[in-house]
Specification:
With 328 residues, the chain is α/β, with parallel strands linked by helices. The protein has 12 helices and 9 strands.
Length: 328
Amino acid sequence: MTGSARFVSLSLIWLAAIAVLIPADRAIAGGGPENVLLVVNRASDSSKMFANHYISLRDIPARNVVYLDDVPNTERIRIADFKNLILLPLLEQVQERGLSGNIDYIVYSTDFPTIIWVRGQRDRFLELVNEQGGRVANSKKLFNPWASITSMTYFTSMFINNDVSYFSLESNSYFRGENRGLLTRPFAGETQDRFEDAVDDSRNGNLDEAIAAFEVLAEEHPNQVAVSYWLARTYATMEEPVESARWLARAVSAGWAFKDYTASDLAFEKVRRHEAFKSVLDRMGNQNFRFYPTHGFRGTYRWGPNGMINSAPDQGSAFVLSTVLGVT
């Protein structure tokens, strides 16, 4: 893997009334010491020394510090060794210590291998692309057989489940790139089919059917901004401003922050002068609709194909930010 956007080594990031429901700046995230897992090579004095300084400086709780044995004393390792000697042991400790819902960042102290041999999984990914009739230009140059420890940690949920789709250039759905499907591609598989059917109903005037379908999706995926926004649009078409404003507020609370785009959306023409709608619009952020909206990070969030949070495990990918304290 090369320095493409989805495989950059990530640094540690510290990241009533309808009006009351809307934060001025949507960026809820973790960031405290309780959200950090510090991983230490027990056989290395350097690793323990740097870890002790980090613990003192950042007030890391003792239960958030994991000491690993049998860490390979090399700069480069095979993917199986990374999985069996580093990643799985630390994940087992997370589970045993009841930290599964807390950890957003994994911090490796010094004396850990930083380069991982992934040729087998790369070749499997390219085989799947070919089997599905796809084509990856310059694949040998674009997908080299080495990956960083931080990038492999970032894609932990895919990697440990033998899902080689993390090689795809679209695998990092938390990446705030260009908006290519915020309102059109929130799901995958059968759920996406249901969503598209509801969109077609809304556009074709089958409003009751659209509302019923969208509300089921909203119950299943309460944080998915695309569903809330389409409910707001559909209720506006039905000339129900209070319901439209309520769902628009919910979209904003889930990350919708495009005031100019919303103000120009013709679907809201019949409700835009209503006080409830204006209240939501006045407090909405005004980001560039060309890009996905900024959003706080949590290790428990699952990011859908449209770069926004989905609730179901099969409708989004979770990621783990990580860093290495130093190399000795």
